[in-house]
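Work Package 3 (structural annotation) set out to generate three-dimensional models for the target panel prioritized at the project kickoff. During this period the team completed the workflow that converts sequence records into discrete structure tokens, so that structures can be stored uniformly alongside our sequence database. As a representative example, we reproduce one entry of 313 residues exactly as it appears in the project archive.
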Amino acid sequence: MTRVAGIDCGTNSIRLLVADCDPLTGELVELDRRMTVVRLGQGVDKTGRLAPEALQRTFAACREYAAVIKELGAERVRFVATSASRDAENRDEFVRGVLDILGVEPEVISGDQEAEFSFTGATKELTGTDHLEKPFLVVDIGGGSTEFVVGAEHVRAARSVDVGCVRMTERHLLVDGVVTDPPTGEQVAAMRADIEAALDLAAGSVPLGEARTLVGLAGSVTTVAAIALGLTRYESAAIHHSRISYEEVREISERMLTLTHAERAAIPVMHPGRVDVIGAGALVLLAVMERVGASEVVVSEHDILDGIAWSVA
């Protein structure tokens, strides 16, 4: 076993996984997994820069994670940064801050690399099962981008497109810096058109129609699953590998886009940092399911973070 730490810094959240990994057996023993909503991508779609307050929130989370990594004695650490830091003009400031705190340089990976990690993390446990048809379509709905990966044991094709819950919210639902509460029909229609255009791009590189099992990753998908399951608190074990029907996703997506901020915040499983962006995230999931004709989505709690840990091991 090798004790490793993987950090995934996305547009909306930063997450840490410390685990013991055995690449020969495929066994991963989780020691610590945590997530902090830092909204690193705040305003990036509009300004092209990481906001000072967003950097400070991210660096504060890095200090917390550095203490956990030291306490648990991880032998190797890998820090992967995705969409927001890929797009930002001042990403060097971000890189220097992370290096000072954690002693490792963040790797600002490409969308294709992001897709590879997501696929490995999501499917390593599924490839040996007989009850799920292959190939898989893994869809990782992040804050700034969404990754599409088709494959069975290995990746066949992948594409990242700039459609995520934060980016769609900021692009279509913000008026004078405030999220419309709830959004208008015109705003939702514009957001849906943007998502459909992104799906057209993805379909140009990835054979979406060949997939037999849709696997959904990341906070928007797991939150939709938690709501569909009627959980009164977030339970990772109940959500992991749950199957949520198209009808449930459609109903939840429509509901998230008609509730007020207060009503969404009152949902027991809703993370405070996801209240304003869950409508956009759920709509992306719904559009994907409609495009590929999926009757259900298999929800995975294991995603890019697990793929990062495996890459270190």
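The first helix runs from residue 44 to 47.
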